[in-house]
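Q: Two folds, back to back.
A: First:
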Amino acid sequence: MNIVTLLPFIVLIGAMFLMTRSAKNKQRQAAQMRDTMQPGTGVRTIGGMYATVKEVHDDTVLLEVAPAVHAIYAKNAIGAVLSDAEYNHIVHGIDPDEDEAAKTSVVPDDASSLTTPAGGADDAADAPASGEPEDEKAGAKKIDLGKNDADAADAPEDEKRDGGADAK
């Protein structure tokens, strides 16, 4: 036989070997991930449910899916073991960046920055001037609530007021 005729078979066998090798590698990593589970760890099942590990046995895992609600799952049903920060972010909505910002927030030494002085500039700016009405001082607009009702009564019945054509 010629080497040219055997070359496609050799390439096919090599590709099959590489594919099975990568699949075995993924299975080994998944088994190693499942072996690292400990009580208190957050996990995601292959069905997409998030839970906390309570007990780990040989082939099964006891998961707490809600407070005081426990379920037994096969170890193979665990899709991912999550870090504490990731689990808290997904399940409880706690963002680790916001938690760090709250710890490092600055608290003033005294209360003087939290209050305004009595009779200060802020109080004078809020008081209305003697000759001006209060709503003009605030820049408020006067709204005629009856205007739209009067326009609607004058409009013919056939005219569309919504701006769109009638779908038939």
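A: Second:
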Amino acid sequence: MTTASTPSRDKRVFIDKFDPDVFRALAQTAQAAGAAASHAGLPVTLVELVNLRVSQINGCAYCLRTHTHAALEAGETAQRLGLLAAWRETDVFTPAERAALALAEATTNLNGSARGAASAAARDALTDEQISAVLWVAISINAFNRVSIMSGHPVKEA
């Protein structure tokens, strides 16, 4: 028997709706991370590239749709978005973007050696304030990816 507190096996539990106060706190964290990125002088396109790369790694379709739209609105090109998964194999990304993407991947995969290499490379292209902001953006989108994936948020054609 299914009750209000015990969902059926085929019913999704949208945790953002079930516990809206927790979701609002997560949203506030993401907003603060975005503000830190802006304050550090990072362009919105770089922030969206980080959001997209993390979402690609995590396989979060909902966040990929959301942040692809946001990146295009911010002025990102379709070509660069198409190349994002292979960013290391192309020279269309700036040194700062490449450093941010490496940090984002290291934050998502939590690989010790990759983390060290990403941090060292970031020092050549980003300030400490920018490194901190990129890490907070990556941490935030990782959390949102998990909310969307675990909730099974549907992705509808725009």
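Q: And?
A: The radius of gyration is 17 Å.
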